[in-house]
């Protein structure tokens, strides 16, 4: 998925989840996390397939147009 948020919402210096690439250094008493918000919050193995899927969804939306998608969505809502 994709998360878009204002930087000022990320006030916690400690990331939500632990993963590779989120620390500058670690000692027995201290951990220094990277300052870049995106790097800090997306630690670990990158979700490459998720990024490809997101790109394909945006391409599909651009190809079909919002009106076509909305029409199909409305038809499905009526059906169910």
From TrEMBL:
Q: Which residues form the Aminotransferase class V domain?
A: 1-78
| Any Pfam family | Aminotran_5
Instruction: Write the signal peptide boundaries.
Output: none
Task: Name the chain's protein.
Answer: Aminotransferase class V domain-containing protein
Matching InterPro entries, A to Z?
Aminotrans_V_dom, PyrdxlP-dep_Trfase, PyrdxlP-dep_Trfase_major
């Amino acid at each position: 998925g994709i998360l878009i948020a204002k930087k000022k919402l990320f006030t916690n210096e400690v990331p939500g989840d632990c993963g590779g690439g989120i620390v500058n250094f670690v000692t027995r008493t201290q951990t220094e996390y990277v300052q870049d918000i995106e790097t800090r919050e997306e630690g670990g193995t990158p979700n490459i397939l998720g990024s490809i899927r997101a790109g394909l969804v945006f391409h599909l939306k651009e190809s079909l147009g919002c009106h076509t998608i909305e029409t199909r969505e409305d038809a499905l809502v009526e059906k169910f």
